[in-house]
Fold:
Amino acid sequence: MISLRQLRYLDALAVTGHFGRAAELAGISQPALSMQIRDMEIELGGALVERKTSGATLTPLGQEVAARARNILVAIRDLQDLGHAHGGLLEGPLALGVIPSVAPYLLPGLLAGLQEHHPRLKLTVRESVTRRLVEELAAGSLDAIIVSVPLGVEDFVEAAAFDDPFLLAAPAGSPLADRPSVLTELIEADELLLLEDGHCLREQALQACHAIDQSRLRSFGATSLSTLLQLVAAGQGVTLVPSIALASVAAADPRLRLKRFADPEPHRRIGLAWRKSSPREQDFRALVDLIRQAAPARLEAVA
Amino acid sequence: MISLRQLRYLDALAVTGHFGRAAELAGISQPALSMQIRDMEIELGGALVERKTSGATLTPLGQEVAARARNILVAIRDLQDLGHAHGGLLEGPLALGVIPSVAPYLLPGLLAGLQEHHPRLKLTVRESVTRRLVEELAAGSLDAIIVSVPLGVEDFVEAAAFDDPFLLAAPAGSPLADRPSVLTELIEADELLLLEDGHCLREQALQACHAIDQSRLRSFGATSLSTLLQLVAAGQGVTLVPSIALASVAAADPRLRLKRFADPEPHRRIGLAWRKSSPREQDFRALVDLIRQAAPARLEAVA
DNA sequence: TAAAAATACTCCATAGGTATTTTAT
DNA sequence: ATAAAATACCTATGGAGTATTTTTA
Structure:
């Protein structure tokens, strides 16, 4: 009879493509893993792995089995969560993922709120880009993720927490800096600076102003918003700043102007996503409320 | 860590509502099952079962866990089938369900065809009414079912095999017996006799002639078509006969007339259904072909 | 007091570890 | 010759059995 243990080992083998490293990943010895894989092959009546000196690759059957194994293992994780879900609200372990353009501004307030209202919650936080967070959520190594919604991922449930307007960051001397800003004016403006590819803030900003002429974009290898703002302050162009970052980056530099856009104000919507199959929906709904409270709108600070 | 073993035991407990009988069902001793359930409760951090002298009932948490456990166990079964699916076509064990109004007429030919073309198939057949077949298919104790399609069950895939026209069975003296029959004439006909409630042929016939006045129906506790035909022969009314049954029941009785309906000919569609998650789709498609070949249209025998 | 489940204990199957051999490049 | 996986052999954990006690209606 197939065991969960065997499924875990096969999963490790699928990930590593190597018996030795798979064993290490699974926390057992290489022979132990080899034996379990072999037993599985006997049980299923076909080869799962192609053994090579360079390592191990899964056969088509092996890949199919591994894919199903992953789903089953996620289902098992969710099952284990049921206990916590039926305990008090937001108690026990919870692995949360957050995108980088939100984490530093939201987490301080959120963690404080959780500490105060749900001291028995054992929260672990991972900060990464959306694509990776989605993968880890699907795989079950994260329980929920704070991202820009909608994600549009089947199997996930999303709940919006708050809208985060984009502000225009322009050099003090720019003509844009002293007028009420509307989005279309960007078309005639200086160059629009954005974060490097793969960073979700880039896509969100692009989506917010889809009318922008692609040829006038400039990408920088900058991972951080503050680097980008340095460039703006130096007169290299303009950029969009999520207002959630205001408190940290604002008026520090006199060469910078931050302005709200006139309606329709471009914004991204920040929300929480979790697996449909997760039994902790109540926890997550409560978490969304806390996220909303922890997202301070300090928009009075700007014109 | 939760084990599949524990999920199986919980499932048995959910089914029986009794530790002793659950243990018997699982093929182990009562203390062994008790201990696994207890370990599970510790692992999940909550009570799964309410212990009473009269037996055991699941708590809300227990029901939720049991429901998920069932899904996981079905996924494990399907995974085990993968091996057979990657072997030759239609090899290894296969549990097939068939509705009673099809089984006796279809199976002889089908089994012969399977024996000839797929001698390595280890087929087990269960004959039961649609509702039960659907349950067993969902639970994984059947791999595929031959039923009247469409079933409209989420999680199932269906493939039509053949259309089975309904014939009119009337007493030789009936005015219907000597005219080309059209369905609407049934409205002015003798009473329509049908099988007892729950028998799928009843629903199929009713669906085929939805125009019929409900008040003119008569149900009999008859489980078998031949009993029903005896009543028709005795002049008690008319009924619908699936043409697949022709070879067995036809012209044996001179008091009976079997007639085809004029267009649009009422019929039921017989097909195969299996779980979406089953890896043996290829097997099932091949089986559908064999079913089609095994369903002889002996319609020449009637006017 | 009777039925059901929990506990006590013993045993053994099997997963896992270490050491070593085989295999393929 | 080297790296990877399989094999051999031993150990120990934990699942299961029997016998018994506890619980509750």
Summary: The domain at 4-83 of chain A is CATH 1.10.10.10 (Arc Repressor Mutant, subunit A). The first strand of chain A starts at residue 49 and ends at 52.
